[in-house]
Structure formats: structure tokens, C-alpha cells
Amino acid sequence: MIRMLFLLFLLIGVAFSLQPAANAEEEIVVKPGDSIQKAIAQVPEGSTILVKKGQYNGSLLIEKSVQLIGEEGAIIAGDGSGNVIEVKAPNVIIENFIIEKSGKRGTDAGIWVESSNNLIKDNVFKEIYYGIYIQKGRFNRIIDNQITGYDGHFSQKGNGVHLFYAEETELTGNVIRQVQDGIYFDFAKDSTVKGNKVEGSRYGYHVMYAKKGLLNDNISTKNITGVMIMDAEDFDITDNVINENLDYRGHGILIFDSDRINIINNRVTFNNTGLSLQDARDCKIESNVFAGNYIGLDLKDKNERNTMINNNFIGNIVQTKIFTSVEPMDLNGQGNYWDDYSGMDLNGDGIGEIPYESGKLFDKLVEENPMLQFFFESPTIKLWSSIEKIFPAFSGEKGMDRYPYTQPVQYEADKTGLDAERNWLAGLIGIVMVSLGITIFYRGRVL
């Protein structure tokens, strides 16, 4: 009897296993003329919707976990009001679409998200107010998108990517142009931003009231300010290229009223102001290049317990602009290279014998009369600088670097590049010499 019951239950189980599951994941295809919204409504959770090339008008509301994958040339076009796509469910994928024509008010966006664990990848956003707006979601990934805002002044635009109370968001490989701020961290936490580029906007990367984040290997160019850090804590700004942010109001990097911001191994070049510290505390500034800026270093308000070592300040018209008391920022006998330092290294340890002095009278005069910058590095100004060293009362505030280097700092990447160049040159010379030897040997035998 027991055996009969066992066989009966086994047969029933096999029969049920052969029936199609009511909620099985599906893969369906949407063609021009079909409705993507109807497809989303009809498919079960976890399904994949493949959207063929063509234009699909109207906004979308996604309230279930689906994968929305576009064929090359698939366009989702809003009607110029509200969000183009609104995501309220978690575990949604939106990939390979052209997304355009959002509204122009409030937080209208190409994609507006209020859920977690979503992937937005390989999309092109055009004519949008905000590109992607994340509201309080976690573990969202935004990868390899191109975002371009509406035409017009930045004050009439939203941001490329806005993270509002978002946590553990990953942004990688995105290119953002012509928006208000490229990536805005608004009370965001634990953000990771790598390999992105922001161009032609107000602020490239705007960190406001945010905590714990990483900006690594990004580019910020031709904006008003490259990186703006305000009222933030515990951010690492590493290995970025920040250049040509030349607006007279702008900066390469500005740190305002923030704590524990690490600025390491960045290239900050050809900006109006390279680095500005304003009420910065416990920050570490190390192994950066500040070159070709109008002002290399700007210190305002009260900056406390910051360290600045192994940086190169080269070719800045005004090396430092300091109108506040300065505490030493060198550390353990390590300082920085300032190309306008003319002190001597008497014992050959690579460190000048007298501290680097900032806030020169010439710098203040240039601030008052910008036309004087044309005399930068002229013999007259060099003589003036020498007189200031003899009569220091002529100078402004003293510098913060007691261990100035007499030669530029060589970084590992520079050394690697130099070694590669030397190896290439040596190889070329070797090939030429071998060829010449063979030619001489051959001609000698013929003669």
C-alpha cells in the first residue's frame, strides 16, 4: 500500500513538472507599431522584452522586474512632459536605447528610478532635463551611457545623473555633456564613480552633503568647475584628469566646509584656479600635478589639519593666492615642488634650506590688476622675488611648506613612461646598428 501511494505521488509530481509554469520567465519581441507598455503589463516577472529598431512614442512605467533590451536604433521618445521612463520595481535592466524628450520641470528625467538593484547601460539620452534621477535606491548601476541635455543656459537644465539619498551606486564609463552638473551627489552615500567624462557643464562632479565615495579615473573638462566638494565627508578623489575649466569663477577642485577629502594622483591643468581649500579639515593632498593654471593654490577661511606633500606646482601664473593664516601642511620632512622656488639645496638632499614662501606681493598686485600677468617670469619679476627674500616684510603671508623640493617629483607612471621611451629608443638604435653592420659586412665581401 505504501509503495502504491509513493508511486502515485511520484506520477503526480512528474505530471505537474511537465506542465508549463504559470509565471515562467518569457522573452518577447516588440516591433514598431506595438506598445512597449502593453508588453510590460503582459509578461511575468523576470521576462526579457526585445525592442526592435524604430521609434516608440510615449512614456513608460515599469512596476515589475523585467529586462528591456533595445535593438540598435530603438528610440523611446517622451512627449516633452514628465519622465520618459519611470522605474518603480527593483531588478530592472534598461539597455541600448535612445531616450529623448523629457519634461523640463522639477525632476523630469530620461529615466527616473525609486528602487534598487537596477542596471541602466549603453543608452543614449538626448533632449532631457535630468538624464537619470535616482531617488533613495541602493545598488543601482549606471554604465556606459551618453547623456546630453537640452540646449540653453545651464541654469535652465537639470543634472546628468542625480543621486538623491542613493546608496552604493556605481557609475562607470558614462559621457555627460551640456547639463547643469554632470554627476550630483545629493546626500548620497558609498558612491563609486569610475571612468566617466563630463564636459561643457557647470560643475563636472558636485558632491553636496554626501558621505563616503570614490571618484577615480574620471575626466572633467571645459566646465566652470571640475570637482566641487561641499559639506561632505570621506571622499577619495584619485587619478582624475581635470583640465580647461577656465571660467573666471571656476576651479579645478574646490573643497568647501568638508572633512577627510583625499586628493591623490590627479592631473589638474589649465584651469582658472587649480585647487581651492575653504574651511577644509583633515584632508590629504598628495602626488598631484597642478600646472598651467591661472592660480595654482587658493586658500581661504580656516583650513585645519590638512597635509599636502609630493605635489608639483608648475607653470601657474599666480602660484598661490592666500588671504588667511596658514599652518604648515608638509608632513614628516616631505614637501612639494614649486617651480618659482629659488632657494638652495646645500646638503644635496633635494630639499631647499629655507621654506617656500607664498603670498608674494606680485601675486596680490596681479589679483588687483590682471594685466600684470603678462610680466610673469620676466627678469623684473624675478628680481622683485629676490628682493622679497632679502626683505621679507615686503611679502604677504608666509608659506606652508617647510621642505620644498628643488626638483619636480617623479611619479611611478612618469617613470614607467620614461623607461618605455628609453627602451623603445634603445631598440631602435639597436636595429639601426645591426642593419648598418650587416650592410658594411655585405659591401666588404662584395668589394
From TrEMBL:
InterPro entries from the UniProt entry: Carb-bd_sugar_hydrolysis-dom, NosD_copper_fam, NosD_dom, Para_beta_helix_rpt-2, PbH1, Pectin_lyas_fold, Pectin_lyase_fold/virulence, SCF-Subunits/Alg-Epimerases
Organism: Schinkia azotoformans LMG 9581
One Pfam family of this chain: NosD
Entry-linked SUPFAM superfamilies: Pectin lyase-like
Membrane-spanning residues: 424-442
Superkingdom: Bacteria
Residue ranges of every copy of the Carbohydrate-binding/sugar hydrolysis domain listed in the record: 43-186, 192-354
Keywords: Membrane, Repeat, Signal, Transmembrane, Transmembrane helix, Ubl conjugation pathway
Signal peptide: 1-24
Pathway: Protein modification; protein ubiquitination
Gene3D superfamilies in alphabetical order: Single-stranded right-handed beta-helix, Pectin lyase-like
Record-given protein name: Nitrous oxidase accessory protein NosD
